[in-house]
């Protein structure tokens, strides 16, 4: 059983990003799947999703309590995988989708506890009112 927590200001939750719905869903599916697989042996299985607005960007952080990232050098190398059944295209695809939408993605180990976090940054759509 995985505990999911959502944290964000009301402003962030109402805010908008300009992204292709299916492509952005694919990014989220890949990141949640990776988080789930990283927590396979964890006693505490928690995924938190937080959102903040920084200037003209929306920053979404997906953090897990998994094993963390052992080797950050090859994270975005296409067709490189440390998983027996992995294809090695998931993270490279996520990064490319975000880049195509004017955004970026950083993957790193958590500073507070064991686990990893993905930080997605996308341009913010201005409100007209």
Question: Quick gist of this model?
Answer:
The chain has helices spanning 10-14, 21-38, 90-100; strands spanning 3-8, 16-17, 46-54, 57-64, 104-109, 116-125.
Helix/strand/pairing class, anyone? Answer: alpha+beta
Largest β-sheet summary = 6 strands, mixed
Low-confidence stretches: none
Helical residues, percent = 25-40%
N- to C-terminal separation?
A: 42 Å
Strand content: 25-35%
The sequence of SSEs as H and E is EHEHEEHEE
The number of helical segments is 3
Radius of gyration, in Å, reads 15 Å
| Count of beta strands | 6
Quick one: overall form?
globular
* Mean pLDDT over the residues: 82
Structural summary, described in words:
The chain is α+β, with helices and mostly antiparallel strands and 129 residues long. 26% of the residues lie in helices and 32% in strands. The protein is built from three helices and six strands, in the order βαβαββαββ. Strands 1, 2, 3, 4, 5 and 6 form a six-stranded mixed beta sheet that branches. α2 (21-38) runs antiparallel to α3. It is globular and about 45 Å long. The protein starts with a strand and ends with a strand.
